[in-house]
Model the fold of this input.
Amino acid sequence: MPVSLSGRSFLKLLDFTPDEIRYLIKLGHEFKRLKMAGVPHRYLEGKNIVLLFEKTSTRTRCSFEVAGHDLGMGVIYLDPKGSQMGKKESVADTARVLGRMFDGIEYRGFGQEIVEELAAYAGVPVWNGLTTEFHPTQMIADMMTIEECFPQGTRGLKLVFMGDAQNNVANSLMVVCAKLGLHFVACGPAKQMPAADLVERCRAIAAETGGSVELEEDPRAACTGAHVVYTDVWVSMGEPDELWAERIELLSPYRVTCELMDLAADDAIFMHCLPAYHDAKTEVGARVAEKFGVTELEVTDEVFEGPRSVVFDEAENRMHSIKAVMYATLK
Ligand code: CP
Ligand code: NVA
Done:
């Protein structure tokens, strides 16, 4: 049966079948080709969308804005202080108001239950632009990027997530790998491993697709033979600054270095959803360097800037893939 996602919300990949996820990735590649060829694609002319951001963003916000404009839509951005939601108006009431005015709603913020509640009340598609638990639009871009690097197919590839293996990006990678038959390894200390119930759920999915889910505390064992080495920040948005000391202590052995990349497959790539702390040239990076004496956190500058790094292709693909998600659900 042909895939149709028309009218659906995009809240987490657990809600989607492997065929539906593959369809979105393929559509992302198609939109990339159209954009590169300069072919206009204002397929959603006359529609309007609203972007609700309770946390900051560069890639996700710009992707939704550019993708929305390319598709011919009106786009309204509401920053963390720009709406009544949560302060003077409940999530359910906000959803019902925005659903009367807009054809689709993007939400970036805190608990997954918030985006689920928005979707339950809005009456229009809601897209998760990152919650504490999941970052599903990032996954469509990441799989596009992996497919570009491994055109012979992604099934059976080994993807290792290094570091804070219980965060939104790690959780989402575990789900997408399970759905698409990749071998996922969460590599970090026991304290930062993904929740047992999500691991169990992903293992059950992987059993159907030929993938696997492994938890590994030894960084060398995890990176050996990996096709994709992926990492993310050690303290995520919404977590307190006080966590830095503990995380640096716990996660330093999991910093992605050239030595670890040398254990990976010959054609291995390095990925990061960004933003990344690979030097001290940021406000937070400089503060951490001054306080803890480390200038590179989750990845060394050498790996980040090195030939295996595909982080800027990955960032670009956010726009093409978000366009695919909006088009598929609004058309
Ligand atoms: N990767 C990502 O979501 O980046 P932003 O926080 O800049 O949106
Ligand atoms: N884990 C990170 C991802 C940023 C795109 C965060 O939530 O801050």
Observations:
- The chain has 13 helices and nine strands.
- The radius of gyration is 19 Å.
